[in-house]
Amino acid sequence: MKKFYAAMVGFGLAAAMAVAQPVKAEDVLRIGVEGAYPPFSWKEADGTLKGFDIEIAEALCDKMGRQCELIEQDWDGIIPALLAKKYDAIIASMSITPERKKRVDFSNKYYNTPAKFVAHKDADYEPTPEGMAGKTVGVQRGTIHQCYMEKVFPDTDLQFYATQEEIFLDLAAGRIDAQISDSIQALEGFLETDDGVDYAFLGGDQFDLECHGEGAGIAVRKGEEELIAALNTAIQAIREDGTYKAINDKYFDFDIYGVESGS
Amino acid sequence: MAETERSPGLLEVIEQFSEEASPIDFILILEHWPLFLEGIWHTVVLVVLALIIGGILSIPLAVIRANRTPVLNQIVFGYVYVFRGTPLLVQLYLIYHGLGQFDFIRESFLWPVLRDAWWCTIIAFVLNTAAYTTEIFRGAIEAVPYGEVEAAKSCGMSPLTTNRRVVLPNALRRALPAYSNEVIFMLHGSVVASTVTIVDILGAGRILNSKYYLAYEGFIAAAILYMILVYFITRGFRVWEKHWHAHLRPREA
């Protein structure tokens, strides 16, 4: 009798696993995106998400053979929401930095572009700590740019914003003297638009390894090694088979991946 | 000396609790006290200034409403309706983002004021609180017993003197409990300042959260600070009411 029960339990477990297994494999991978960071990620008037990050996310899901769901989240809460399991990965142009690595793990980079200042084209000051002293600079809260400004430009007044779009609004309105952000984002999201005609980059690339990190990667919760490995393989695969180039060329006229990473 | 060995300092207790027992990093919050101090300063200055200016504005507006002064009454009613009918956040966005869109405003003498997030916020807060306070004071003026007004009249007081000596002192006193609510609502409403780059208490919490990628710490610190401010407001009003409502208390034997 005992054997019978054991067999029943065993059978039941096996049946349950047989049912559970394919469901798990098809488990939807939920991806957090920002949706307010053109050309990497923005929302069309009809509510659909568009942009480089979005297409990269879709291409990676395709390569991993997983169904994905994109979930929009404000930048402010994008890491806390990942930790709270609202989604499983962040594909939102997030730079791989030491400070963030304390909270989350990262895939390899999927692109790397430099940060630059943007100011009125008639600006007559240098983008140095001395030249920017007393100027008001707009910065998106919780970005590599906040880290960089606080570290390297201690005498500059910072104004913090929730989104990059609000910064460009206030720059165009003349409320801030300058802003610092990703150069590609500033170019396509502002300088090449109607609002940005009177504005230009102020100086060259701004870089500090501790703040800017190694480029933008995909963030996942700590300890998800399988997911990281799958993402890294997928990133490499889309680099090799031309999918990356096809997406890249839709948005940019040069390869934004940067130097091939060693790892 | 033995004493210092025995009892760990308060800070160490919190530190230990933070690390071992609590999901919240209290030390991080304490380390950023200058940030929160800046937040408290901005919140308090904004709210106090808005309440003072808005309160002063609302007294004549309330008299106009209560007396049904022709033409002016309709204008004040329209103003009150618009500002009570729309959310404070929308009002602030319209002043901050909306007005900044027009070139003629950007080139006008108003721009040095409207350019500044701080002034935009003060303007929105003053207009908002004045609208609510007008209605509170109007109700209180209408609640003044007519006999008192008649008595003043029969003493030969002009309408202005009647208002100044009889109606307003009486009405403002009666309005105190209702007004204390408006003060607390204004304090809580002031969090919208953080959406236009002002580092108020919530703004400080948001900066802390985003700097260390936290979900709760900044908000919990902000919540506690707001509660402390509300405590002082309610205490203040209790003292005030005790003083100004002394005549309403039952007489002690």
The biggest beta sheet of chain B reads: none
What would you call the quaternary organization?
Answer: heterodimer
CATH class of the largest domain in chain A: Alpha Beta
The class by helix and strand makeup of chain A works out as alpha/beta
What would you say this structure looks like, in words?
The complex is a heterodimer of chains A (263) and B (253). Chain A is an alpha/beta fold and 263 residues long. Chain A has 2 domains: 28-112 and 214-251, D-Maltodextrin-Binding Protein, domain 2; 115-212, D-Maltodextrin-Binding Protein, domain 2 (3-Layer(aba) Sandwich), CATH 3.40.190.10. Chain A contains 10 helices and 13 strands. Chain A has helices at residues 2-25, 52-64, 78-83, 98-101, 144-152, 164-172, 183-191, 209-212, 225-240, 243-251, and strands at residues 29-33, 36-37, 41-43, 49-50, 68-72, 89-95, 104-106, 115-120, 136-140, 157-161, 178-182, 199-206, 216-221. Chain A has a 5-stranded mixed sheet. Chain A has a 5-stranded mixed sheet with strand order 10-9-11-8-12, with helices on both faces. In chain A, strands 2-3-4 form a 3-stranded antiparallel sheet. In chain A, strand 9 (136-140), helix 5 and strand 10 (157-161) form a beta-alpha-beta unit. In chain A, helix 2 (52-64) crosses helix 9 and helix 2 runs antiparallel to helix 10. The model of chain A is unreliable at 17-25 (pLDDT under 50). Chain B is an all-alpha fold. Chain B has a single domain, classed as MetI-like fold (Orthogonal Bundle). Chain B is 77% helix and 0% strand. Chain B is built from 13 helices and no strands. Chain B is flat, with a radius of gyration of 24 Å. Residues 1-5 of chain B have low confidence and may be disordered. Chains A and B meet through helix 3 and strand 10 of A and helix 12 of B.
